[in-house]
Amino acid sequence: MLGCVVIALGACSSIRESRGFINDPVLTRSVQPGIDNIRSVEGTLGRPTFASQYGNPTWYYISSTTGRRPFVRPRIDSHSVLAVRFDAAGNVASVDRSGIDEVTYLQPDGDMTPTLGRERSFLEDLFGNIGQVGAGGPGAGPGGP
Asked: Which residue from 23, 28, 31 is spatially nearest to 80, judged by alpha carbons?
């Protein structure tokens, strides 16, 4: 009986998952504007999670930890973004840190994506093309349009 209770309580424990960049405070604090460049940042922190495509190069290191109980949607416990901006010469111009306070939660509008055009019923989708395949339309003839 006691064994069943221990197993049941173990099954209800939270599952923690780390995703993205593993945030080491000592390494991230060592990146200094005016001192480091692209090579030294890559040597210290590794390749970024993603890099900007426009403007001055910016590398983003994103770290997230989620907690999830069985049969429940995962919840973000901690989230951090380290943005390292470089100048045109490749030297570190600034280092910005942000956390979960700047995360925006999006609420989708319903469970369907609105589209333009007419809405068709299931039966129209099912039987709508009967007679259309191979039928001669405008410009149809031997050899196609």
From this structure: 23
Quick one: DSSP state of residue 104?
A: P
Instruction: Supply the pTM of this predicted model.
Output: 0.62
Partners of 76 in the β-ladder: 66
pLDDT at site 117: 76
* 58, 51 Cβ separation under 8 angstroms: yes
As a three-state string, the secondary structure of the chain is CHHHHHHHHHHCCCEEEEEECCCCHHHHHHCCCCCCEHHHHHHHHCCCCEECCCCCCEEEEEEEEEEECCCCCCEEEEEEEEEEEECCCCEEEEEEEECHHHCCCCCCCCCCCCCCCCCCCHHHHHHCCCCCCCCCCCCCCCCCC
